[in-house]
Structures
1.
Amino acid sequence: MAANNLILPQSVTMQALIAKGFLKHKDVSAWDGWNVTVLITTNEIDQKTALMNAQDRDGNRVALLADGSVQFLN
């Protein structure tokens, strides 16, 4: 996108990354049934910044933080 002078969004869904060919479904199939968002613009200094958010069909939410930890939000 940057090579084509397009503005990068702040976040993108995993489904969009698959549709655009950046990811293969087989490589992320463990997330089937989850609504996953990857945050592209993050505060790299703050280690508690979320890099990825996911929510399952039951409403359970988790976040992958910049420090590598996983936080359960429900």
2.
Amino acid sequence: MKLIVAIIRPEKLDDVQRALAERDVYLMTVTDVRGCGRQRGYTEVYRGTEVTTRLVPKLKLEIAVNEPFVEATVEAIVHAGRTGDTGTVGDGKIFVLPLEDCVRIRTGERGADAIGP
């Protein structure tokens, strides 16, 4: 089992969800987050004053998958989350972490059975 944590642009959520659904990955948690990477924020003019925003709005997806779904999940996020053909700075990151255990609260199932359908 793996926990896939992806940081993506908010406007890419629908595309990513659609790409994941095509690969039978439906279960995820989505959180509004803010952060900065190589973008280092942006500057805009608001009411005649220049304002620097250092933390850019992003979405964090947390997806628990069984081993056979890891590569398909990562591939779906990469292709659907990328801006344009080659991508741009700020498209996000994907982290794949080992998942020691999972428990479905309703039934008490543990491990891979708790993640699966």
3.
Amino acid sequence: MTKKVKRERVSKADWLEKALDVLESSGIDEVKIERLARELNISKSGFYWHFKDRKELVRAMITYWEQEFTSVVTSNHEILNASPRERIYLTMKMILENNLTRLELPMRSSAEKDPVAWEMLNRVYQIRLDFFRSALSEMGFEGEDLEMRVHLLTCYHTWESTMFRDLPKTSRAKWLKLRLDLLCSHPNKTN
């Protein structure tokens, strides 16, 4: 007689984490229910316990990404209680130290074919823009000057590691303060 091994149930978080691992390593086209089930060592019917379909999984991945890669910064009490300039610096540092941009490109790809997912993704980008806008506005920037700085900060910290993968983390860490000085200094004022 064969002894059956009792398996623990795979949680929704387990499915999401595995999907994000596959997304990061292989891209959105490889985030397939069959592959996830195989890698989790469970039948694919377990997937449907948590998600209606693959589209719902992708949307859940974006929600998870928003919480774990954006809200973790924008709702961080230490950051929120800092001065505007320090808030920007702590945000830049947290992004770098925790590699919070590693899913930017695959996340963007995953949303391109789904209008609801695309809207969700753009909402996350708006949260980021608003976060930097608030700090820079408190520092006295306004109008086009404010918007240019907001977009530069957001774009740079969203795409630096994607664009410059070979740039050592030590160099990026050294440049944080230089970038802070560049983007937070008023051209006609001395700090």
4.
Amino acid sequence: MPLQAGEKAPAFKAIDQDGNQHQLKDYKGRKVALYFYPKDNTETCTKQACALRDNYDMLQEKGVTILGVSPDDVKSHKKFETKFNLPFPLLVDTDLKMAKAYDVWAWKKFMGHEYWGILRTTFLINEKGKIEHVIERVLSKTHGEQILAVWGL
């Protein structure tokens, strides 16, 4: 079960598609929407990323920083960012440290198959580094608007 609202967000250190390092402490004093998604360039993940891209300016105006996280590598993230003109960092979690720290690496079922994978989840982290909201039922096509609504912005 993923972390819950009110808990301190686990610290992390990861690089993005451009090789830049990101740490949670770098975002102290800012709202962060940390979204975990299963895989670059898949249908639902692309819809989600594009919904965030399309609402990026509004999210920025409301003081929300978007950080995507998946187990894909730098090369895959860069290709995904370029193909869909994504304006936010995509963090590399090939070792699953972040997914496990946020408890979104789990046993899943899809079309009769069972496997380990990422639970599509977004953590809304406040300026003090605490989780304010956990979005477990992500609306991929309208995720940017969903974040604003859940956060009351």
